[in-house]
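Hi R.,

As promised on Friday, here is the backbone we talked about, encoded as structure tokens. Could you run it through your design pipeline when you get a chance and send me back a sequence?
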């Protein structure tokens, strides 16, 4: 059976019971959920050998991608799309492993700065390729043009989501 068929079947049943149900749009939404979950599962499988999970991996990747490998806690939470409490838990784990350091921002003790350590940089440099090598096959068979179109549609969708009602 197709990996999405059971979900599709249930949604068709909803449409029968509720004719106003926007089947096509909801199908796209459910596909997005399925893709995200499966991509997260693939990423976590790749990261397991590094004793990381997607939350810690994203923190390392965001810091590694920052110009000076440093971020405020607030900016890091926004970039990682994490709630502050969850980011604190992830950062506690990373700090205990010596992958990041935390300290007060010079001139503003209320602001927490998070910095990648040398060990954290090394972990990012080994874990990023592990994750992308495990997930790249999701785009097998897509042409360069199709990938550009997909990216443009994702950007448009993100703008729509961010737009006020």
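Update: got your reply. Pasting your designed sequence below so it's all in one thread:
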């Amino acid at each position: 059976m197709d990996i999405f068929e059971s979900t599709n079947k249930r949604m068709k049943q909803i449409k029968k019971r509720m004719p106003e149900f926007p089947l096509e749009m909801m199908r796209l939404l459910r596909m997005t959920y399925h893709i995200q979950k499966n991509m997260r599962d693939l990423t976590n499988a790749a990261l397991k050998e590094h004793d990381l999970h997607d939350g810690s991996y994203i923190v390392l990747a965001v810091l590694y991608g920052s110009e000076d490998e440093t971020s405020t806690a607030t900016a890091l939470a926004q970039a990682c799309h994490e709630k502050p409490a969850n980011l604190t838990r992830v950062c506690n784990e990373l700090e205990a492993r010596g992958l990041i350091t935390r300290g007060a921002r010079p001139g503003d003790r209320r602001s927490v700065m998070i910095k990648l350590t040398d060990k954290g940089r090394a972990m990012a440099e080994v874990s990023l390729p592990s994750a992308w090598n495990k997930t790249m096959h999701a785009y097998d068979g897509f042409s360069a043009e199709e990938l550009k179109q997909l990216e443009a549609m994702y950007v448009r969708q993100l703008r729509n989501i961010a737009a006020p009602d």
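One thing I noticed while checking it: Residues 23-47 form the longest helix (25 residues).

Thanks again,
M.
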